[in-house]
Amino acid sequence: MTLVEIELPQELQPRQTQVGRFIRRTQSICPECNRILPSTIFEREGKVFMTKTCVEHGETEELYFGSYDMYQKFATYWSDGKGTHAPNVPIESCACPANCGLCSNHLSHTGLANIIITNRCDLTCWYCFFYVKKGLEGAYVYEPGIDQIREMVRVLKAERPVPGNSLQITGGEPTLRADLPEIVRIIKEEGVDHIQLNTNGINLALDPGSAFKLRDAGLSNLYMSFDGVTPRTNPKNHWEAPYAIESCRKAGIGVALVPTVIKNINDHELGGILRFAQRNIDVVRAISYQPVSLTGRMKKQEREKYRITIPDCIERIEEQTDGEVPKDAWFPVPSCSPVTHFIEAFTKRPQYELSIHFACGAGTYVFEDKETRKLVPITSFVDLKGLFEYLDEKTDELNSGSNKYLVAAKFMSKLNSFIEKDKQPAGLNLAKLLVGALLKHDYSSVGQFHIRSMFLGMMHFQDKYNQDEERLQRCDIHYLTPDMRIIPFCSFNVIPEWYRDRIQKKYGITVEEWEKKNGEKLEARLYRGTLRRGKHADGCGCNTSAVHIEPITGT
Amino acid sequence: MQTMAQKGRREPWAAIEKITFSCSPQRAKLDETLALTVGFQVNGGIRRNFIRRLWEEAYDQHDRGFRLGYWVTIMKNRPVPVMAVKVKEDKFVRRGVFFWARNPELPYRVWATIATEFETILYPKTETEAQAMLFDVTRSFEIPASKLGKGLHTLEGRIRAKWGKHIFTERGEAKATSSSLKVRIE
């Protein structure tokens, strides 16, 4: 008998090993060779996965979103943004993830611009890929000059139709630059209203006076790493964070805590982090949980060990707060779109919009009940779904030519029906605040929102395993680079060999050159643990301090 | 475009058609529950215009969604029509969301998903499927028979659909009433 080789028709070709309910098709990249691949998003056992097959490197299957139900709910808020009319890289056809910068096909304007002012760091965390490591071949120090920084900010402000107005100074560790207050001042001078500093907080802990200088220069808030409430989960700044927070408290600078969440490492402390923030609610304005982005080559088993997604974090927060912050309290970031669209229809002017992909981020607001000290999510006294739906309806009416003053009157009379006033935290008049912000464009009252309240956010940056071009095209967290481009976060960091490393090498200098130029060794600025000697600080709030086991007494 | 279509074809821009109205059981005891189902389609130019070419045209002018509000009301009729009593009312929304698709098998740039009341999202494979997801409706209600009370009742479903102005349609609404149904409660 002779074996006959036949060519199977397309429908009979062996399929990827996807077993489950098909959701949608998208594009991704091969984690080995960056080749653009078609990929499938599908549901299996209540979770959402992505699968893709490279002809050379085989199939990659990855957890995409930890709950299918939440995926479905979040997807209903899908809303593509306005994009930007002043792109730096005009191209005809979409070539994501190549040629980012922003290209004319990008769908979101810059929501938050990052500007790296140094890649030096005073810590040497084993898992960090971002700081310059002396001794490595090709190690270089990247520190743009003041003029370069000013030009980069001007590119941000030149964005149209919505000029960038929110900027994060990042590193490395940006406080290592002696001219940091001057950098803040320059950014402010160029017209950026919101400036935040991404830091480990150690230098602010060591030198509380620097917080005053930064505040005076125009800094809005600190965006501080804070990975857990024990030294084991947060070796980075466990001892120093309380001092840094105290410095900010004295200087009147708000703080956002930023835990990177890794499964089996610190996912059991998400509630603990929230309690720590609650104890400092007078100064901690937000927590931005960031499910880990897995860099480097990792085997599937290892990825499964560490991979955690937004729904998993939300579930753990519900469990670890005894249901005080339930799953239902969370909404995807683009759920803000009905508010933006309403203001746009009312003012007939393009507005700042958070139009990222629904799978990229989520958020909610929590308030502290003065009597019980329990956290009260905004959804417990506001029918947000109903409000968004109503805003959509009114936007339709405005866009269809209805009289805007009649619509405004209807809106004001209906607004209270979405708010249960008796459940509203004392001191907050949400209806008044919304009328002020939406109709009068008076944002001064928004500060009221932060009275004993916190924003809880979640942002899942991509990696090569779960990379989705659909998400990348809608990214609104961008990097400003000295070649006058604006590059989406998930291009800049997911394919560093095309973006981050290449740009920093081009505009950086070797470690040896830097040492010669500055007359000091790179390692001279490493943190030596000054604040770690001896016992824990009083009231530092960690698991081993006395405060942790006592009832919450506020600040 | 809408006016021309109306004049040319001599049909309404939108009409609620193929209405079905059923009740189970139609003869029930006072302590039982009645299952009522109303089904209908929105047809006409508005449905015909919900096509990919116009999704793309709308998308490029930043008109990126089509919101359709539906009201279904179950009425208990009285001898004098103006005295009809509302038994149940349901308001819901369906939205067509136009988006830049990255599906490599789709030969188009812009496609649509259909979202239902911030709860679920549907991914149509064809324009016809998208139209069906948006314009074909079946709603079910449960009401206790006691709400109607003992006796012979005449029920009917009143339907209303409303939408705003977009690239492919003017603002408008359509209304219809189902045939009536007799229900006996003992």
Q: Mind explaining what this structure looks like?
A:
The complex is a heterodimer of chains A (555) and B (186). Chain A is of the alpha/beta class and 555 residues long. Chain A is built from 18 helices and 19 strands. Chain A has helices at 68-75, 146-157, 180-189, 202-206, 208-217, 241-251, 270-279, 300-306, 310-320, 337-347, 384-399, 404-415, 430-438, 469-472, 489-492, 500-507, 511-518, 546-549; strands spanning 21-29, 36-44, 47-54, 58-65, 112-116, 140-141, 166-170, 194-199, 221-225, 254-258, 260-261, 284-291, 331-332, 361-368, 375-377, 453-459, 477-480, 486-488, 509-510. In chain A, strands 5, 7, 8, 9, 10, 11, 12, 13, 14, 15, 16, 17 and 18 form a 13-stranded mixed beta sheet that branches. In chain A, helix 3 (180-189) runs parallel beside helix 5 (208-217). Chain A is globular. The relative contact order of chain A is 0.14. The model of chain A is unreliable at 1-9 and 543-555 (pLDDT under 50). Chain B has helices at residues 2-9, 45-48, 52-60, 127-135; strands at 15-24, 27-28, 33-43, 65-76, 85-100, 110-116, 120-122, 136-144, 151-163, 172-177, 181-185. In chain B, strands 2, 4, 5, 6, 7, 9, 10 and 11 form an eight-stranded mixed beta sheet that branches. Chain B has one domain (28-185). Chain B contains four helices and eleven strands. The longest helix of chain B has 9 residues, at 52-60. With 186 residues, chain B is an alpha+beta fold. Chain A binds chain B through residues 23-27, 38, 72-73, 75-80, 82, 96, 105, 107, 385, 388-389, 392-393, 396-397, 399-401, 468-470, 473, and chain B through 59, 62, 64-65, 67, 69, 93, 95, 97-106, 113, 115-121, 123, 163-165, 170-171.
